[in-house]
Design a protein that fits this description.
heterodimer, A: alpha+beta, 20% strand, elongated, B: 229 residues, alpha/beta, Rossmann fold, four-stranded antiparallel beta sheet, 7 helices, binds adenosine-5'-diphosphate, binds magnesium ion
């Protein structure tokens, strides 16, 4: 079937610039909300997944979802450390990091309000197991001292986190001696110090969690079974990436449910807006529709012309909303992770998949808004329509 | 030779608020190829209705209607649209140009329904533009043209697809005397030089004189003589 020329369709939108702009603006706002929700979810997932290393496994107490809730006694840690599945590193050292993880409260820059921050007691092994963590400025803390280093998001967002400055927690003063970069992962939102010093300061006997490097990833299942079934241990073991991405599940679900609910509610408004615009467009062009039909354009061609106009409106709104959302990638945000209650900093990430889904969403809004008006245009009686000139 | 338009006992009525209003009661009429016919009659006598039936944008209640040898009352909605695009050129009182399209694009519009290539379309539009004397105005939009110029664009649009028949419903009804004379002269020339069959509705006796044949319609019936006032 022959269609109405595209330049006719596009120019009609252009000839009603203000209405088009307002309607597309409404669609763009909804698209913006929709896209940022997806981008936020993507950003959080990526932050938490990249926190884990592929060959590493995390061991926590059974039933604990996070390191903070977990505890592993020193003797248990010793047994696990000696398991044959643990990789042996340079100088015959077993690739195991026994860590203690506690929440402390630091004051945010700007508003000076306290916010929870994860402090991780670790050792040089903690760094060896996580090669994405690099010292960016200053140096590593010396073992056996009250020195700490801070992740790059902490350095950027909290008071007294510059090199040489002092932080007060656990009745001690801790000197910041370095800033580390963890490649945008969750560690960027942590403070690291010496495990033994931190355990003393917080009066703890047990570690929170262990990170182990597997000699061979095929031995993961057997290792997990041993750790889980040995009555002395009864610990849970997960691949490190799974462990961290599991931590974002509740937050991710919350963001998706809230964000998509909002998007759907807003989209109803935007679609009604598009529908009103398109009905007005049809009403003001009844004579033109009659003329097109008289010239030999079929009902289907008229239907398609108005539908295409609505879809184009949707695409304009979609591209504008997406462009606005893309700007969000430039900024870094933080939120409270529901499962750890710690502050987590992340970026909005736009992926090709999100672009496709968002544009599809915009096109669907245009379609829903445009269908009834287009149908009405196509159903007009030619003679009656021509009388409207 | 077979007439271009062959009408036998054609009737058409409209329904208005539950009441049936007869508009055309018993029309029998032949129009030969190459004829320039003026259809006259008082307002409300059914001139436009008859023209719309012949042009295939309205359907009769009963009677026979053949255009170009084809019974167009038997065609479906879509087939009828395709038939119009190939066989009928329309000229309206208020020009009915697409305001967002330039003169060139308005004239090209019927050709977008054909299989002609872009280059072929361009060539034909240029030729038709020169035929109506608007080559220098091809990029102007309707709002930038006078009424007479707009009607010339409409004439170009009506002839571009080389139709069997041109229907014009009061083509000079909205024009000043000079522009009206230009338009009538142009229609006359089309008829004389290209032997285009034209049916023109008008209630202006002066306009009707440009046609070679006059028919009168009064209260839904054809008359041989103009009704005496
Ligand atoms: N779509 C319609 N619905 C109802 N009545 C109509 C319709 N079209 C035309 N009529 C009536 O039919 C009669 C003839 O109309 P028309 O053919 O437009 O007359 P003319 O063109 O000779 O002035 C008029 O009385 C008009 O009111
Ligand atoms: Mg009329």
């Amino acid at each position: 079937m022959m269609g109405v020329p595209l330049n006719y369709i596009a120019r009609n939108l252009w000839s009603r610039r203000l209405t088009t702009l307002l309607t597309a603006g409404g669609l763009a706002l909804v698209v913006f909300v929709f896209a940022t929700v997806l981008m936020m979810d993507e950003g959080l997932k990526r932050t938490l997944v990249t926190t884990g290393e592929l060959d590493n496994a995390v061991i926590i107490r059974k039933g604990a979802e996070t390191e903070i809730q977990s505890g592993i006694a020193r003797d248990q840690a010793g047994i696990i450390e000696m398991h044959p599945a643990v990789a042996i590193g340079a100088q015959g050292r077993r690739m195991v990091s026994k860590e203690t993880v506690v929440l402390i409260s630091l004051l945010r820059q700007g508003d000076n309000k306290p916010s929870n921050v994860v402090i991780r007691g670790t050792s040089d092994m903690g760094f060896l197991l996580r090669p994405q963590v690099r010292i960016k400025a200053g140096r590593l803390f010396h073992p056996g001292t009250s020195e700490v280093i801070v992740g790059s998001s902490i350095a950027a967002r909290f008071n007294d986190t510059g090199i040489g400055q002092r932080l007060r927690f656990a009745q001690r003063e801790w000197t910041v001696v370095g800033v580390f970069d963890a490649g945008g992962s969750g560690f960027d939102s942590e403070v690291w110090g010496d495990a033994d010093q931190l355990m003393q300061a917080f009066r703890r006997n047990a570690y929170s969690a262990m990170v182990v490097r597997l000699a061979d990833s095929s031995r993961f299942e057997a290792f997990r079974a041993d750790v889980g079934e040995d009555p002395r241990l009864a610990q849970e073991m997960k691949p490190e990436q799974t462990f961290y991405s599991d931590q974002s599940k509740a937050l991710s679900t919350f963001i998706n449910v809230l964000g998509l609910t909002l998007s759907v509610i807003f989209s109803i408004g935007a679609m009604i807006g598009a529908m009103i615009t398109m009905y007005a467009s049809v009403a003001s062009r009844v004579g033109e529709i009659g003329t097109l039909r008289a010239l030999g354009f079929r009902r289907g061609a008229v239907l398609w012309a108005f539908l295409a106009e609505a879809l184009l409106l949707g695409i304009v709104g979609g591209v504008a909303g997406l462009a606005l959302a893309a700007l969000m990638q430039l900024a870094s945000f933080s939120t409270i992770n529901f499962q750890t209650f710690a502050d987590l900093s992340f970026r909005f990430i736009l992926t090709p998949g999100i672009v496709v889904r968002t544009l599809l969403f915009a096109v669907i809004m245009g379609f829903v808004g445009g269908f009834l008006p287009a149908f009405r245009a196509a159903r007009l009686n030619i003679v009656d329509a021509l009388r409207a000139v | 030779m077979q007439p271009v338009v062959e009408i036998r006992n054609l009737a058409k009525s409209y329904r208005r608020g539950g009441q049936i209003v007869p508009v055309l009661t018993d029309i029998t009429l032949d129009i030969q190829r190459g004829e320039f016919t003026a259809l006259m009659g008082p307002s409300g006598s059914g001139k436009s209705t008859l023209l719309n039936l012949i042009a295939g944008i309205d359907k009769p209640d009963s009677g026979h209607l053949r255009v170009g040898g084809l019974d167009i009352t038997a065609l479906g909605e879509g087939e009828l649209a395709d038939w119009r695009s190939r066989n009928v050129g329309f000229i309206f009182q208020f020009y009915n140009l697409m305001p967002v399209l330039s003169a060139f694009e308005n004239i090209e519009l019927p050709l977008t329904l054909t299989r002609l290539s872009r280059a072929e379309r361009r060539e034909r539009v240029e030729l038709t533009l020169s035929l109506v004397g608007l080559s220098d105005r091809k990029d102007h939009y309707p709002s930038e043209l006078s009424g007479g110029q707009q009607q010339r664009v409409a004439i170009a649009r009506a002839v571009i697809a080389d139709p069997v028949l041109i229907v014009a419903d009061e083509p000079t009804g909205d024009l000043d005397r000079q522009s009206a004379a230009d338009i009538l002269a142009m229609l006359q020339r089309l008829n004389a030089e290209l032997s285009t069959t034209i049916i023109m509705v008008t209630h202006d006796a002066h306009a009707a004189r440009t046609a070679r044949r006059l028919i009168y319609l009064d209260k839904g019936e054809l008359m041989l003589e103009p009704p005496t006032i």
